[in-house]
Write a structure and sequence with these properties.
Shape: flat
Low-confidence stretches: none
Amino acid sequence: MGRNRSRKGDWVQVERIILEAGSRAPGIPGDTADLPMLARVKGFALDSASVGEELEIETAIGRRIRGRLVEVDPTYGHDFGGPIPELTRAGLEARASLEGRGKR
């Protein structure tokens, strides 16, 4: 579990509202239109703050962004999903075919 307070220079993630719920584009689904459009940005804390407080950060490319601190030392939570059965042996079969062993 991450810390609840950042120090100057920490790698953090802030969140800021880009569009309020009432300002969203017409025609988007209702469950989306009822929520604000948020941006989550990672960078280096320019001061100390507790989670939930406003904080200015500097991104890796030097942009300064102000938002609500949501995480200190954020992790990357994405992955490429589970294995695809049709592809699990594809590399082995391709290698065997290229080496002339692919004949059955």
